Automatic annotation (TrEMBL):
GO terms for molecular function: DNA binding; DNA-binding transcription factor activity. This is IclR family transcriptional regulator. GO terms for biological process: negative regulation of DNA-templated transcription. The keyword Transcription applies. It comes from Hoeflea marina. Keywords: DNA-binding, Transcription, Transcription regulation.
């Protein structure tokens, strides 16, 4: 980027304004005009325009053809992806998972959403003498696991529709295999912010899961606790729900959710 001339204080102000422009465009997720930017950032249109031209030259923002508006450019998108890729979900979730296990005693797990289900990335074994949990690398279904329902409930309408149209495999007599019943369950999960799946994948097992969101606001995974149904009920305790959702929110913040 070209060197900004002027006093050091002016240079800092220029950097601050450039970053503010980038953050505003990222929040808007659409092309924005100079007047709107100037009003939002409390400065003049001429000052905004100078910064926009530099950012366009460097590829951080773009100005569509025949338009007086500006939007995030390819260099900024690539930079965001590089940062996102460096924030490995399992690594970011390591401390929250350990603290969740220590607080509640149940196995704790982080899973990542994929087109075909929820891939278990990492687990922390529970305190029980009988180990109850899921293996890293396992793929969990969207309809019969708490992890799947917690992620699917907050995914796009198109993604949910694709899953609802697919064949819903029966694992136990408690597995939800009706698209209508699953859709209603997902509405409930969205309203409360967490999901369970007692006896739905295996008799005697239950998981409580809450969604993880990335820097764009998209659901990217879940944090959950796993144990036998007598320890995690269909409606878990308030403490279990609060701690699990707090752990998921902590991971989301570490991934940049809510930073803009």
């Amino acid at each position: 980027m070209p060197r900004i001339e002027g006093k050091s204080g002016d240079g800092v102000q220029a950097v601050n304004l450039a970053l503010s422009i980038i953050e505003h465009l990222a929040r808007e997720q659409r092309a924005v005009g100079v007047t709107t930017l100037a009003q939002a950032l409390g400065t003049t249109k001429s000052r905004i325009h100078r910064h926009l031209q530099t950012l366009v030259q460097e590829g951080y923002i773009v100005q569509p053809v025949d338009s007086d508006r500006y939007a995030c450019g390819p260099r900024l998108v690539a930079l965001g992806r590089a940062v996102s890729d460096s924030l490995d979900l399992a690594h970011v979730a390591a401390d929250p998972l350990l603290e969740l296990r220590d607080a509640l005693g149940h196995s704790a797990v982080v899973s990542q959403i994929t087109p075909d289900g929820m891939r278990v990335l990492a687990t922390v074994p529970g305190r029980s003498a009988i180990e109850i949990g899921v293996r890293s690398g396992s793929m969990l279904s969207f309809h019969s696991s708490a992890q799947g329902k917690a992620a699917l409930a907050f995914s796009s309408a198109e993604f949910r529709a694709r899953v609802l149209r697919s064949k819903l495999q029966v694992f136990t007599q408690h597995t939800i295999v009706s698209p209508e019943a699953l859709a209603a369950e997902l509405d409930k999960v969205r309203a409360q912010g967490w999901a369970t799946a007692p006896n739905e994948t295996g008799i005697g097992l239950n998981t409580l899961a809450a969604p993880i969101f990335d820097s764009t606001g998209a659901v990217c995974g879940t944090v959950g606790i796993v144990d036998m149904v007598q320890f995690i009920a269909g409606t878990p305790s308030e403490d279990q729900r609060a701690r699990t959702m707090a752990a998921a929110q902590r991971v989301s913040r570490a991934l940049g959710h809510g930073a803009l």
